[in-house]
Design brief:
The complex is a heterodimer of chains A (683) and B (158).
Chain A (H helix, E strand, L loop, with lengths): L3 H27 L4 H21 L2 H18 L7 H22 L9 H17 L1 H10 L1 H5 L15 H12 L3 E9 L6 H15 E7 L2 H5 L6 E8 L3 H9 L4 E8 L3 H5 L4 H4 L17 H8 L8 H28 L2 H24 L1 E3 L1 H4 L2 H12 L3 E6 L4 E3 H22 L3 H6 L6 E10 L2 E8 L6 H10 L5 H5 L3 H6 L22 H10 L3 E7 L3 E9 L4 E9 L2 E6 L3 E8 L4 E3 L2 E6 L2 E7 H4 L12 E9 L2 E7 L1 E9 L13 E6 L5 E5 L1 H4 L2
Parallel strand pairs in A: 6-8, 13-22, 17-19
Antiparallel strand pairs in A: 1-3, 1-4, 2-3, 5-7, 8-9, 9-11, 10-11, 12-13, 12-20, 14-18, 15-16, 16-17, 18-19, 21-22
Helix pairs in contact in A: 1-2, 1-4, 2-3, 3-4, 3-5, 4-5, 15-16, 18-19, 19-24
Chain B lengths: L1 H6 L2 E9 L2 E6 L3 E6 L13 E7 L2 E7 H4 L12 E7 L2 E7 L1 E9 L3 E2 L4 E2 L2 E2 L3 E6 L4 E5 L1 H4 L3 H10 L1
Parallel strand pairs in B: 2-13, 5-7
Antiparallel strand pairs in B: 1-2, 1-8, 3-6, 4-5, 6-7, 9-12, 10-11, 12-13
The chains are: A alpha+beta (683), B alpha+beta (158).
Chain lengths: 683, 158
C-alpha cells in the first residue's frame, strides 16, 4: 500500500517525539528518581514504535521496542537508572534519529540495530533478575501497574484512549449504556479483509457507536491489519445481541467481547480528568499505555493549526506578486493624479502593509526549534572532552523567519563547539584559576530593531591575543609590521580569517579543517554579521546579528544610465549629492569628505559596465553612502528613484555567483531590477 | 532512445530558426515561447547571457543562442522569439530568430551529428534529422545550458 501520504506526518511526528525524548532524558539524567519523566519518555517511545511499525520501518520498530522494554522496567521501579543505561538509551535515540534523517532523505530507514538491541536486552535480562527484590517491593506500592505485564501486552485488551474518548465513555456509562471491548478475528483464508471489516462496522453502527478502533479506521479500510482488529463500542443493546450480529457475518473466526471497566476514573474527582493528561498514571490501567501526542498537545494549550510549509511559501509568493502590483498601482496613481484613485490606492497600500506584517509573522518560528537540540549536543561533547559545562538558554521564544532558521543551525553548532572546545578550560585548569569546576555557556537570543541577535557567551579562558597574533603571522594572514599596530578588536577579528585555527591539535570537535571563517561567510550570506568580544581569563562572547526576514526588504532604487538597481536600506547610511569639484583623489582612488571621514567612491557605471546613453552629465553626482561593518563607501549613481519595499527573488540556478549582485526584484512596471550586494563592493 | 523507437517511433519537436538553419528541441523540454520583452542586463556575465526577464513573476535568465554558438550577430526583429526551456531544475530562455512549427520526426530519421553543422559544434548537438526536403538539427540542451563555462569565465574575471 502507498504510505507516502503519511510519510510527512510520520517524519514530523517522529522528530517531535525524538525531541521530547531527548529533552526528557536530559531532565532524567539530573533527576533519576522522577518516574513521571520516565512515563513521558515511555509514551513517546511507544508512539514511535507504533508509528514506525505501521509505516514498515522494521529496524526502527524493533529498536524502539527494546528501548521501550527497558523504560517499562524503569517506570515500574524494577530497574534503577545508572549512567550506563542512560548512555545506551541515548545511543539508541541517536540511532533512531539517524534513521529518521535517512527516511527524510528518501531512504528506507534501515540501519544496523543489533548492537543497541543486544545491550538493551542485556539490561532487561541481567538487571531484571538482579533486582527482583526491588521489583517485589515496588509491586506492593503499585499493584496496578505490576499487573500490566509487558509480555502479555498483545493478548490483553490494550486500549489506547484519549481524553475525549474517555469522557464519552464515562458519559455513556453514566447514562446506562454498555461499554464493550470487541475483538474480531477474521477467518484465515478471508480474501477481502477490509470488506469484512466494513460489514462488521456496518453492523456495529446500527447497534451503537464505535468510539475507537485499533488499528485506526483508515488503516483497517486499507487492509493494514492482520486477522484481527479491536473496537471500543458503546451500545444500549446487550452483549449477546452484539455478538450474534457480528457472528452472522461470514468469514469471521471468532468474536471476543468484554465489558470495559471505568471504575478507576470514576473514583476520582471528575473535573481533574480532562485537565490533567500528564497524570495518566492514575488513569485506568487499560488506557495507561500510550497517549497520542496530538491530544496531549491540544490539551496543553493554545489554539494552533498545523500548516504545510509549502502553503506558507505559496502564500508568501502570491503576496509578493501583490506587493509588486502595489508598487505599480502607486506609481500609476501618482501619474494620473486623481485624488479618489490616490486615496483608494493609499488605503490599499496600508491594508496590504498590515497583511504583509501578518504573513511575515506567520513565517516566524521561535529559535527554540534550533536551540532545543543543543543541550544534548553540549552534554555529549562535554563528556567527550572531559569538561564540565552547563548550557543556559535564554530567549528561546525569540522568533525568526523560517528561511533564516533553516540556515542558522550549523553556524551556531560551530560557535557552541568552538566555545566548548577552545573557550571552556579543563576542570583542573578551572580549579587552578579559582573558577567553579563547571563552566557556563550562555546562549541568548533577543530582538533589537529589525534584527535578531544571538549571543554565545562562555566563561572560559578568553582569547589569547599573543597566540592568535603568532598564528596569524605564521599563516601569513597578517604581516609582522601590521600585527604590531592592531587593536584588540582587530586581533579578535582574525579568528574569522580563512585558514585560521588556534587549537594546537585539530580535534574532531571544532576542527575538521574548517574554522570560524565558514561560520562568518554563512552568516554574511544570510545578510547578517558576527563579531567577537573577549576578556582574558573571563570568557568570550560571540554576537551574531541576523535580519528578521529575507523575503521582503526595504530598498532604495537608483538609476544608472538606463538601468535601475536596488540598494538594501539595511546597508545604507544616507544619500547625498556632491559637487563634482568636491571629489578628491587619494592613491588614484576617488574619495569624498563625508562628515569628516574620507569615503572612497565606487562608480556603479564603471563597475557594472553600464552602456552609455549619451545623456548629458551635470556637475553634481548622487552618492549612496553604504557601510559594511565599520567601513564605508559611496556608490555613485545618476539619480535616486526612491525608497520601496521590494521582494527578493533569486537569479536562478543558471546564474550563480554574479559579482556584487545578491538577487533581483520585480518593479512596478514589470521589469527586473538587480539588487546590489554592497558587501562585495567594499574592500 | 531504443525503447522510444520501439514504442513511439516518433519524437515531437519545436522547430526554430537560427541564421539559415532549422533546429529542434523536444517539446517536453519547452515550457513556453515568448515574444521578446524587456531584458535586464546582468553585469559581468558571459557575453551570451543577455540578462534576465520577468516571466510571470519568475526571474528567468536569457541566453542569446547566436552568441552562444558564436554565430554572426543580427538585429532582433518582429519574428524574434524567446523559447523558455527547462532542463533539470534549470529554466532558461533562448533567443532565436523565429519559432513557428511543431513537427513529429521519426526516430529512425535521426542521425548522429557531423563535426560541425551550420557553424555549431557537434558537442552541442544530439543529432541531425533528415526529413523530406529539410534538415533539422537537434540540440543537446544539457550541453548548451552547461554552467561550467560560466563558472570558468567567473574564475577568470573574479
Amino acid at each position: 500500500m502507498d504510505m507516502n501520504q503519511y510519510l510527512d506526518m510520520f517524519i514530523e511526528e517522529s522528530k517531535e517525539h525524538l525531541q521530547a525524548i531527548n529533552e526528557n532524558l536530559l531532565i532524567l539524567e539530573n533527576d533519576p528518581a522522577n518516574i513521571q519523566i520516565v512515563n513521558e519518555i515511555f509514551r513517546s517511545a511507544h508512539t514511535l514504535k507504533g508509528m514506525s511499525a505501521t509505516m514498515g520501518f522494521e529496524d526502527m520498530a524493533s529498536l524502539t521496542h527494546e528501548a521501550e522494554n527497558v523504560l517499562d522496567l524503569i517506570r515500574n521501579n524494577k530497574l534503577t537508572i545508572n549512567s550506563d543505561i542512560m548512555d545506551v538509551i541515548f545511543q539508541s535515540v541517536d540511532l533512531i534519529e539517524g534513521m529518521v534523517i535517512h527516511i527524510t532523505e528518501g531512504g528506507d530507514g534501515s540501519a544496523d540495530v543489533s548492537d543497541p538491541v543486544r545491550k538493551l536486552r542485556a539490561i532487561v535480562a541481567g538487571d531484571f533478575t538482579a533486582q527482583q527484590e526491588v521489583a517485589a517491593a515496588a509491586s506492593v506500592a503499585e499493584p496496578e501497574v505490576q499487573a500490566a505485564s509487558v509480555g502479555n501486552e498483545a493478548a490483553k485488551p490494550d486500549l489506547d484512549l484519549d481524553d475525549y474518548a474517555q469522557t464519552v465513555l464515562k458519559q455513556s456509562k453514566d447514562s446506562g449504556n454498555n461499554l464493550l471491548w470487541i475483538k474480531v478475528i477474521l477467518n484465515e483464508n478471508c480474501l477481502l479483509k477490509a470488506a469484512r471489516a466494513y460489514m462488521v462496522f456496518d453492523q456495529l453502527e446500527s447497534l451503537g457507536e464505535v468510539i475507537k478502533t485499533t488499528p485506526a479506521v483508515q488503516e483497517i479500510e486499507n487492509e493494514r491489519f492482520d486477522l484481527s482488529f479491536e473496537v471500543v463500542f458503546v451500545t444500549m443493546h446487550p452483549i449477546e445481541k452484539v455478538r450474534t450480529a457480528i457472528q452472522n457475518i461470514s468469514e469471521i473466526q471468532e468474536v471476543q467481547i468484554d465489558t470495559i471497566d471505568l471504575k478507576a476514573p470514576q473514583a476520582e474527582p471528575p473535573a481533574v480528568q480532562p485537565e490533567a493528561p500528564a497524570s495518566n498514571a492514575a488513569a485506568p490501567k487499560k488506557a495507561e499505555t500510550a497517549q497520542p501526542a496530538a491530544t496531549r498537545k491540544v490539551a496543553a494549550g493554545g489554539k494552533t493549526i498545523r500548516v504545510d510549509i509549502e502553503r506558507l511559501d505559496i502564500l508568501m509568493n502570491l503576496f509578493s506578486e501583490l506587493v509588486i502590483d502595489r508598487g505599480r498601482l502607486e506609481q500609476l496613481a501618482r501619474e494620473i493624479g486623481k485624488s479618489e484613485l490616490q486615496e483608494t490606492v493609499e488605503h490599499m497600500s496600508r491594508i496590504s502593509g498590515d497583511l504583509q506584517n501578518i504573513i511575515l509573522t506567520m513565517r516566524m518560528v521561535p529559535v527554540e526549534q534550533v536551540f532545543n537540540r543543543f543541550p544534548r549536543m553540549i552534554r555529549d561533547l562535554a563528556k567527550d572532552l572531559n569538561k564540565k559545562v552547563n548550557l543556559e538558554i535564554f530567549g528561546a521564544e525569540t522568533e525568526l523567519d523560517r528561511t533564516v532558521i533553516d540556515e542558522i543551525g550549523d553556524p551556531l553548532v560551530h560557535l557552541l563547539r568552538n566555545s566548548l572546545d577552545h573557550g571552556i578550560e579543563s576542570v583542573t585548569d578551572r580549579r587552578n584559576a579559582g573558577k567553579p569546576e563547571e563552566g557556563t555557556i550562555e546562549l541568548r537570543a533577543f530582538h533589537s530593531g529589525n534584527h535578531v541577535f544571538i549571543e554565545v557567551k562562555d566563561d572560559g579562558a578568553g582569547i589569547n591575543k599573543e597566540k592568535v597574533l603568532k598564528k596569524a603571522i605564521e599563516r601569513g594572514i597578517v604581516s609582522q609590521a601590521a600585527a604590531e599596530t592592531m587593536t584588540d578588536k582587530q586581533i579578535h577579528e582574525l579568528l574569522f580569517a580563512s585558514g585560521f585555527s588556534t587549537a594546537d591539535v585539530i580535534s574532531d570537535i571544532s576542527g575538521r579543517g574548517v574554522g570560524l571563517d565558514v561560520v562568518k561567510s554563512k552568516i554574511v550570506a544570510l545578510g547578517g554579521s558576527v563579531s567577537v568580544d573577549s576578556v582574558r581569563g573571563k570568557g568570550t562572547t560571540f554576537l551574531v546579528q541576523l535580519p528578521l526576514t529575507l523575503s521582503i526588504i526595504s530598498a532604495m532604487l537608483v538609476q544608472v544610465k538606463n538601468e535601475k538597481y536596488a540598494v538594501p536600506l539595511s546597508s545604507i547610511i544616507e544619500t547625498a549629492v556632491f559637487k563634482k569639484d568636491q571629489i578628491m583623489m587619494a592613491h588614484r582612488q576617488k574619495v569624498i569628505d563625508f562628515r569628516g571621514r574620507v569615503v572612497p567612491l565606487v562608480s556603479l557605471e564603471e563597475i557594472f559596465q553600464v552602456p552609455s546613453n549619451q545623456a548629458e552629465t551635470d556637475d553634481e553626482v548622487a552618492v549612496v553612502i553604504v557601510r559594511k561593518g565599520e567601513k564605508m563607501a559611496g556608490l555613485v549613481v545618476d539619480s535616486f528613484i526612491g525608497q520601496q519595499e521590494i521582494v527578493l527573488k533569486s537569479l536562478g540556478k543558471y546564474l550563480v555567483n554574479v559579482f556584487a549582485i545578491s538577487g533581483a526584484t520585480i518593479l512596478g512596471d514589470g521589469q527586473v531590477a538587480l539588487i546590489i550586494d554592497c558587501n562585495a563592493l567594499i574592500k | 532512445m531504443l525503447e522510444q523507437k520501439a514504442i513511439v517511433g516518433e519524437v515531437k519537436v519545436i522547430v526554430f530558426r537560427l541564421q539559415d538553419e532549422e533546429y529542434g528541441v523536444e517539446v517536453q523540454q519547452v515550457k513556453a515561447i515568448e515574444k521578446l520583452e524587456h531584458i535586464t542586463r546582468v553585469p559581468r556575465t558571459p557575453k551570451f547571457v543577455k540578462g534576465v526577464i520577468n516571466l510571470r513573476g519568475v526571474v528567468t535568465p536569457i541566453i542569446d543562442l547566436r552568441k552562444r554558438f558564436e554565430l554572426e550577430e543580427s538585429e532582433y526583429s518582429d519574428s524574434t522569439r524567446t523559447i523558455i526551456v527547462a532542463v533539470g531544475d534549470l529554466e532558461v530562455g533562448l533567443i532565436v530568430d523565429a519559432a513557428n512549427d511543431v513537427i513529429d520526426i521519426p526516430v529512425d530519421a535521426i542521425e548522429p551529428p557531423p563535426e560541425v553543422v551550420g557553424g555549431v559544434e557537434a558537442a552541442y548537438l544530439r543529432g541531425v534529422a533528415k526529413l523530406d526536403n529539410r534538415l533539422l538539427i537537434l540540440l543537446n540542451l544539457d550541453k548548451v545550458l552547461s554552467t561550467e563555462e560560466i563558472n570558468q569565465l567567473d574564475a577568470l574575471e573574479g
